[in-house]
């Protein structure tokens, strides 16, 4: 009986540890250059909303060393990591890479062990000097001959961080990565089970599944596949991506579900308005973010203020139409659904791109300050 009681107690302890409570938030340093309401700096960050903050992005120089993207990043690093004085539990990471990054820099670095070592040593120095807690690898995407090199980079970073932590008697630096949500790219780019051994967590990029290069409307971040999806389109959804990473050997607790604090807009070509309606490419540019077909959460609130929101029933996400503009986005209801999904599947948590896209002042959405992040914090972070 004693053994049964102890076993039951141990199971309860383990179950309580395996919770979905990670909320990782990216800070896009380029947002500081936006006009008016779009401008967002480190001083605008609330350090109590997220469990992890990631500074995006750093660079790799021509000698394969991790370096700041610009000289102005150094004082920003100090402010960014100073946020931990207001939240001692907060962890900060420095991202390298990103969507617009020259991936040849990654390829050159991982191809040779000496160059990988140089990168890793420079990473330890840059992270420690500036008080970061770890690194985020945002390499899009290490396919072909770079695939085994990415595995080696993850492995050697982890080993070096463990050794440095032991030598200095400090908490080990964290190793994380942002990874594709598309089946074809996952197969081509990652030795999933191997990299999962060395990474502390992975941010699965479960958005931008659909875009203006297609001929019809489609939500860029559906939870499930849609009734109209055929062929490989059945893989272009959050549920498939998260399950595929898990089934390929990544522990569920290491996987973060990606949430986009922006909508993707299309210009309609006909009077059709539903999912699958013909389009003439990207929608209009956001008035503050300035990118065609890309509307920050606060811009979406502004543009659809007097428009009825429609639910894509099978995909569990909303869209709206204003004049000839069709926009897919996430709202309170779809965020609730997605968080319930990740909890029921025991995934580690969620990550958000990015803080600057939320309605920081509450001016546009009329739901209080930072409603997107605040809702996720309420749903995910224990003791809220």
Structure report:
The structure is a single chain. This protein has a single domain, classed as TIM Barrel. The chain is of the alpha/beta class and 384 residues long. 33% of the residues lie in helices and 21% in strands. It has helices at 2-17, 73-82, 104-110, 113-129, 146-168, 183-189, 192-198, 238-247, 297-303, 332-344, 371-380; strands at 22-28, 52-60, 66-68, 91-97, 134-138, 174-179, 201-204, 255-260, 262-268, 279-282, 294-296, 310-312, 317-322, 325-328, 349-353. It starts with a helix and ends with a helix. The radius of gyration is 21 Å and the shape is globular. The protein is built from 11 helices and 15 strands. Helix 8 (238-247) links the parallel strand 7 (201-204) and strand 8 (255-260). The protein has an 8-stranded parallel barrel with strand order 1-2-4-5-6-7-8-15, surrounded by 6 helices. Strands 9, 10, 11, 12, 13 and 14 form a 6-stranded antiparallel beta sheet that branches.
Q: CATH top level?
A: Alpha Beta
In this structure, how is the largest beta sheet organized? 8 strands, parallel, barrel
Rg calculated over all Cα atoms = 21 Å
CATH superfamily: Glycosidases
Q: How many helical elements?
A: 11
| Beta-strand share of residues | 15-25%
Give the mean pLDDT: 94
Write down the overall geometry: globular
Q: Which strand order spans the largest sheet, edge to edge or round the barrel?
A: 1-2-4-5-6-7-8-15
Task: Note poorly predicted spans.
Answer: 1-17
CATH structural fold name = TIM Barrel
Structural class designation: alpha/beta
Quantity of strands, as a count:
15
Distance between the termini: 38 Å
Q: Roughly how much helix do the residues carry, as a percent range?
A: 25-40%
Whole-number total of structural domains: 1
Proper CATH architecture: Alpha-Beta Barrel
- H/E element order: HEEEHEHHEHEHHEHEEEEHEEEHEH
